[in-house]
Amino acid sequence: MARVKLCGLTNPADLQAAIEAGADAVGIICDVPVDTPREVGRSTAAELVAAVPPFVTATLVSMPEHAEHAVELVRTIQPDALQLHGTFDSDDLGYIRAETGVKLIPAVDYTETDRALALDMAADAILVDSATEDGAGGTGEPHDWEATGELAERLTSPVVLAGGLTPNNVAEAVRVAAPFAVDVASGVERSGGEKDHTALATFVRNAGRELEVVDQ
User: Fold this and answer.
1) Is residue 61 left, alpha or beta, with left meaning phi > 0 and alpha meaning psi from -120 to 50?
2) Gap between the Cα atoms of 13 and 194, Å rounded
3) Does pLDDT of 70 surpass 80?
């Protein structure tokens, strides 16, 4: 059974629905240089993070300009974990960890095997996504789950599978890639930035459902 992060939450009602659906982690997007309806300002991010109960990981998802910017965001918003998009290296992760103490989850494109291996020992987990050229995630595009599964076998860090997941395909993705966790944002929305609460619950349920494979 894969753990589940429900990401791109923008308001208290959606946050509560994600928690009630059984999310292991929730994601709040702030300070990203891409146009997304899932981004919130720092004050809203801090309020949402503060409302996350114990035993659910409050994850700040950001694409800061540099390591010092990341530290500033963590100190302002105070998440449990920081999901980093961009070109950060292991030295950057070491600096951010030393300054903040939060768990660090760098995001890599599914084709960036060498980068994932280079970040492995410095990360608490690695998110494998379908990323843009500048390292931004949230494309909503699925990728090669088998390749992600093969990468996960080579890494020490837990792998979080993201990119194009929905309630309809997450069980198959988990079966093929066997990730530690799965991450969804646009795949559980009724409109940009607003979650479908039924889809949240269905996604969490299906992430833990075993698919029966029938030989033809």
Assistant:
1) beta
2) 10
3) yes
Sign of the torsion formed by the C-alpha atoms of 39, 72, 78 and 50: negative
Mean pLDDT over each residue of the chain, to the nearest integer: 93
214 vs 183, residue with greater confidence:
183
* Cα-only R_g, the chain: 16
User: Which structural domains are found in the chain, ordered by start?
Assistant: 3-207 (3.20.20.70)
Whether 129 is a known active-site residue: answer yes
Judged against a pLDDT cut of 70, whether residue 97 lies above it is answered with yes
Question: Model confidence at 7, in pLDDT bands (50, 70, 90)?
Answer: very high
Annotated catalytic residue: which of 31, 92, 129, 183? Answer: 129
List all residues 6 or more positions away from 37 whose beta carbon is below 8 Å from its beta carbon: 10, 192, 193
Does 210 score more than 90 pLDDT?
A: no
Q: Catalytic site residue 7?
A: yes
Single out the catalytic residue among 7, 14, 92, 183.
7
